[in-house]
Amino acid sequence: MNRIDDRLVHGQVMIGWLGLRRANTIWIVDDAVANNPMMLDIFRFAAPAGVKMEAMTIDVAAQRLSDLSPGGDKIIVIAKVPKTFMRLLEKGYRPSDINYGAMAHKAQSRNVTQNCDLSPEEIEDTEALHNQGIRIWIQLVPFGGYKAMDWKDARRKVGLQ
Question: Whole-model pTM?
Answer without folding.
Answer: 0.91
